Amino acid sequence: MTLVADLYTAQPFWIWLGVGVLLLAVEAMFSTEWLLWPAVSAGLVAVMTAVGLRLGLPGEVAVFAVLTVIATILSRRLVQKANPPGQDINDRNSRLLDQRARVVEAFVAGRGRVFVSGAEWAAVIDGEAPEPGQDVVVKGVSGSVLTVRSAV
Questions:
Q1: Mean pLDDT lowest for which of 2-11, 95-104, 105-114, 130-139?
Q2: Where are the beta strands (DSSP E) in the chain?
Q3: Contact 59, 45 (CB under 8 A)
Q4: 125 closest CA partner among 143, 144, 99, 106
Q5: pLDDT over 90 at 87, yes or no
Q6: Residue 117 in contact with residue 95, Cβ under 8 Å?
């Protein structure tokens, strides 16, 4: 422990840089988005000590804590702007809802095939079965089976 204390006394930059790198490594492993801003804050405190602004350990910990809180609050606002609540653009199934599809195989016993979004899907019909070539509307997705109903 005296080795760390001696290193901090001589070069606090390396301690803060090590803390930042350690936090960043844990963030990279688990991708939580919670440790990114403390890692950045530790890096900023490391730069602060490298340029000669020495506040002592309590002062540097306080600066680290304040920077972490500010960066986390600002990042939440940024994340909310960048990722508004609602439909996930990567969720193909939810994007299929309310899309028009074309019947490519007749519905027999309520099951058939439709073409939508560049692919052919198994489908179950809700209501009267349309003929091949007619349009239907996707009303639900369950695994790889669409629930459709007549577009008319």
A1: 2-11
A2: 100-108, 111-116, 119-125, 135-142, 145-150
A3: no
A4: 106
A5: no
A6: yes
The pLDDT value given to residue 117: 83
Kind plus residue range of the DSSP H or E element containing 3: helix 2-10
- 17 residue type, one letter: L
pLDDT of amino acid 70? 93
Q: How many CA atoms lie within 13 A of 91 on its CB side?
A: 9
133 touches 142 (CB < 8 A): no
Q: How far apart are alpha carbons 81 and 148 in whole angstroms?
A: 34
Specify the pLDDT at position 86.
Answer: 65
Residue from 29, 36, 22 nearest 79 by CA: 36
**Are 149 and 137 within 8 A, CB to CB?**
yes
Contacts of range 73-78, beta carbons closer than 8 Å, 24 or more positions apart = 75/33, 75/36, 75/37
- What's the predicted TM-score (pTM) here? 0.53
Cβ contacts of 89-96, under 8 Å, gap ≥ 24: 92/117, 93/141, 94/141, 96/138, 96/141, 96/146
